[in-house]
Amino acid sequence: MLALLAAGALLAALSLSGETRLAAQLLAIGVVMLVALGAVAIVGRGFARRHAALHARLLAATEAVGAREPVMLDETAPFEVAQGLRNLARIADARERTERSRRTWLVAIAEEMRVPVEALVAAAEAEGASEARLQPVVRLARIVEDLRAVALADLGRLPVALAPTDPGALMRNAGFVAQPLADKAGVALELTLRAASGGLPRWDGAQIEQLLGALIEHSLRYTPRGGRILLGAEPRGGAWELTVDDSAPGVDIDLAQQLFEPFYRAADLPEESLTHLSLAFATAQAIVEAHHGRIEASRSPLGGLRVAVVLPGEPPVA
């Protein structure tokens, strides 16, 4: 319609004469240009909307891949876009299969290692092995249990047997087990407990003791001779806060978030030529999540690292 009006205006201008004709022609040319620009804008807007929609589909697909969610296919999209979505879906599916295989293999490896390692521990104890000989075997058994906990949690299959548990008793047991290592390392192991007025929390006691043991062992690794490790347990409303503080230098607080990666390596001690592989924080996080709690790393009042675990007194039953 606008094009017809512009053409009519141009024809009317050509039928005039003199200055009136020139002015009319200029006006008609302006109308034609406005009509042309309007047409380009309309076409461009439709083109932009179409490609914006395609871009949004691809963006949503890449975000789904990143979040490990199913990729929504759209067979009504242009061939290139539909093919791209199918390729992303195949990539996501292949990655998920690989991840499932990795998690399953980790659980299988940990389960297979438990029997011979437990046999080694039993044989060493039966022989009356010295602490120096027994310690590496016990540490190997702890690593196997940590690996199993992380792998099962990764699959969402970490079993939790809730029962009334005394947080103070768990802290004392964990400290008692770690005391020989602390004495050997020349590190003071201290305990601060606050009694609760209510009933006992319902936790998986074995898992919480495993959590505390992993955190204490990690602190012992990075606390120099003459340092301190302080264990604390304090009720907070309907929850409990369990803390492990160590003295400087500890672990670099700027790397605190990386501490919860299962295979994070750190070599802060100058005498270490090889970095240490530690599952401590990944194990702790897996157990805490299974109890619907939270775990945080921050700077300790002692100058090193503080790890705070907050667990509900009555975790919800899945």
How many helix segments?
Answer: 7
Average pLDDT: 76
H-E string: HHHHEHEEHEEEEHEE
Helix content: 55-70%
Residue share in β-strands: 15-25%
Count all strands and give the number.
9
Radius of gyration, in angstroms, nearest whole number: 34 Å
| Uncertain spans | 268-277
* Intertermini distance: 66 Å
Biggest sheet strand order reads: 2-4-5-9-8
Overall shape? elongated
| Main pleated sheet | 5 strands, mixed
> Which class best fits the helix and strand makeup?
alpha+beta
Keywords:
318 residues; alpha+beta; 5-stranded mixed beta sheet; two-stranded antiparallel sheet
Q: What's the structural blueprint in terms of helices and strands?
A:
Layout: H1 2-14, H2 18-66, H3 79-126, H4 131-154, E1 163-164, H5 167-185, E2 188-193, E3 202-203, H6 205-222, E4 228-236, E5 239-247, E6 265-266, E7 276-277, H7 280-290, E8 294-299, E9 303-312
Parallel strand pairs: 2-4
Antiparallel strand pairs: 1-3, 4-5, 5-9, 6-7, 8-9
Helix pairs in contact: 1-2, 2-3, 3-4, 4-7, 5-6, 6-7
Short description:
With 318 residues, this protein is α+β, with helices and mostly antiparallel strands.
Describe the structure.
With 318 residues, the protein is an alpha+beta fold. It is 57% helix and 15% strand. The chain has seven helices and nine strands, in the order H-H-H-H-E-H-E-E-H-E-E-E-E-H-E-E. Strands 2-4-5-9-8 form a five-stranded mixed beta sheet. Strand 8 and strand 9 form a beta hairpin. The radius of gyration is 34 Å and the shape is elongated. 24% of the residues are buried. Residues 268-277 have low confidence and may be disordered.
